[in-house]
Amino acid sequence: MLKGKPNILIDAGFLIDEDVDLVILTHCHFDHHKFAKEYQKRGAKILASREAAEELKKASEIVAPKRFRELFKTIPNPIDVDIILEQVDNIENENFKLKVLKVPGHTPCSIALFDEAKKILFSGDTWYGDDVIGTWNHAGGNLNELQKSVNLLKSLNPKLLCPGHGDVVGES
Question: Across-strand partners of 45?
Answer without folding.
Answer: 22
